[in-house]
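Per reviewer request, we include the raw input and output of the structure prediction for the construct analysed in the revised manuscript.
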Amino acid sequence: QNQGPGDVPKSENGVTCMTTSRQSRRDPTGLIMRKGRSRNSTRDFIRPSRHLVDPDQSIMKPANFVKRSTNIGTWNVRSLESTSSKLYELSQCMSEYQMGIVGLTETHRPGCDETVLDNGSLFINSGRTDGLRRQGVGLVISSELKNSLIMYNPVSERLLAARLHSKHINISVIIAYAPTEDADDKVKDTFYHQLPSTFDELPDHDIKLLLGDFNARLTCDNSSWRGILGKHSLHQESNKNGCRLVDFCAMYGLTIGSTLFQHKNIHKETWKSPDGKTVTQIDHICISTTWAGSLLDVRSCRGADIGSDHYLVRGKLRIRFQAVEKRACQRGKIPDIEQLRNGSKVDQYNIALQNRFDSLPAVDDLNEQWETVRDVIKEVSLQVLGESPRLIKEQHLSMQTRDLIYERSRIKRRQPDSNTNRSEYSRVSKLIKKSCKRDDQSWADRVAGDMENAASKGYQREVWQKIRVLSGKKKKKMKAVRDNKGVIISDPTKQKERWRDYFDQLLNHPPGTGDMSFVDCLEHKSCFSQLKNNDESPSREEIVSALKTLGSYKSPGVDEITNEQLKYGIAGLVERLEALFSKVWEAETIPDEWLKGIIVVVPKKGDTSHCSNNRGITLRATVSKLYQIIILRRLNHGLETLLRENQCGFRRNRSCIDQIFSLRCIIHNFTEYNLPLYINFVDFK
């Protein structure tokens, strides 16, 4: 019978069977039933109810909760390091196919790092630690969803785990790259032992998404695996990797979404041999069986091009993501400090400070006096200097290379099985590689020219920045945090508590219990004879001298004031700073904000998910550091008389390089005369 546009398709026995994307499906076994529209759909989303369409066969319809779906996918890119155009092609495909989350395999990028793509997407890589450009997995999150990232854990070059914040329940994403079918069984066993361990570290109540290249062919006979496999696989029989994958999904309650939906075979293929004669379906998207109804469709996108013989596998997930709650204290607008460094607006800045301070009434309270000075500096800086402009990322590829990339993508869309198109595709790929090499060379020449120009002007900071750009070295970043027992903490609130407890234990040691009564018996010795009881508050000369010693390009503290805003505003600030320091000196107390600080975590060597492999740097109020410099200078004069001649740490004119040179001379002389030498290195914790 003819059906209208609103009619529901029926199977032969009269049982209703359809997907939420209005596609016919003969056996949606093990999926959640779709309920009717409801005003409060979130209640159905949190607790999906199961309604049997055919109780005898346990056939259910999938759920339909959120109107807008998110595109997720997996893609074997076959190296992101072969040419410099790979990341550009990846960002273009992310935008063209409106991808939200993509799991990448075979990235061939060593180490763990984060990269922001041209379209604003966040790319996280997990590669080998020995520097070899093999294996490697990655996760790409679109600019709309990257704020929902809670944490990620680069487990190995074959596994990457991440957690994303959803509106009602969090989502755990695991990117996996399994060994090939011909690989040694020991390598496979190691992978399938590491994969369950990664799953066990994630919260049980999260929605699980398993994406990647498993090199697994799956059978279309799902009679023994209802709820795990569907009937729409490309292959008739499973290989060994396929059996391993099915066993793992059965153990952890996952449904292989790549086999659920009925498509043409060309939309099931995920890999095609270079000669075009062999096709397989080895890249898969798996989801928790309880939430399989939120997976609306899975198919291959043959038009996506990144120079790989694998196709992008795209799935539609009907789950609403939500950004993680940001910290309440957001950093305000940043003034353009560069105009103070080059001296273009120093005079205007000082005049504006003087005029603003002269128009304000006198304040007696210490905290109010400090807040007045702080607010005036910040407001005048924005008024005179303006807001700092955003950095524009330099375009690495030329228009000629981009045109070739676009031409190759058009060739891939035209009958990929044709021998003529395959040869044309290969020809354009070679041209892209040559063009990328020319672009790389021209870019390196430009950076080297800028570095030479900066060196001739004495801008050492800019020189070292260019060197770091050319070397390609990046700082390690990791959002995963482990507790004292080595278990990964997934909750952002508990992660902050873990850092607070770690630094509290590290910096606030309990008082010692030793007997210090012998100190009272020691002979009294005057240490700071030049300091007298009638010492006055910091003078104007001391403040000016301390301001001139402040370094540039330093991070601001809790007051959001940089060193440049102080050192280039001497004429307009020195009188107010003198009054503020005099108030602190006489009252013998400091403003409340000077007691606060922002601890910035800087990674060191090793696994940075362990707190002990990180270093904490405290950013305090810049004006408070200026006051400390003045007090420290006064104490240094008396301290020099107490230190031994061989004490070299933190003393003037006794650098670390000088001490290393002295030690090398001692070693050389003892070695020359064949004398025994004992050196003791002590590292105090």
